[in-house]
Design brief:
InterPro entries: Rossmann-like_a/b/a_fold (IPR014729), UspA (IPR006016). Helix content is 36%, strand content 26%. With 159 residues, it is an alpha/beta fold. It has one domain: Rossmann fold (3-Layer(aba) Sandwich).
Amino acid sequence: MTDDTVLVALIGRPFDADALARATERFPDAELVVLAVVTPLDAPFSEGQLLSPTDDRFLQARRRAENLVERVRESSGAGDASLDDVEIAVAQGRPAPVVANRAERLDADRIVVGARDQSRLADYLLGDGVGDAIADRASVPVTVVEVDQATPSPADSTL
């Protein structure tokens, strides 16, 4: 694949590592931009935990992204060279508009995001999910790395 710039959206889910690993596998020559999205304080939950207004949430999000990049680099064997020059950005807001807008500003060629593989019943009850919401707003292809919680092998869906 010849995507030049790939935006990897970290939305505070356990599947962020799968999305970053898949991006490095599928787009080894691309410039990777990792965007850690911080959910607004008016949301009851964010980044997989209860919110505290006293936390320096942007610094925590950047540290989580840096640690994630390092974990994915280490798990790729001798170290993944495509992660040496990764750019890390942090933005606050609802994931779908934030990710779509950042991709537009970066002139990204693709977005990669991790998601839980949901059943049709869950889709019906809970909605299509963040990946679909990002795809609805984005002007570039979105690869949703769906991870089945029972068997942790990711599968891609390009929307």
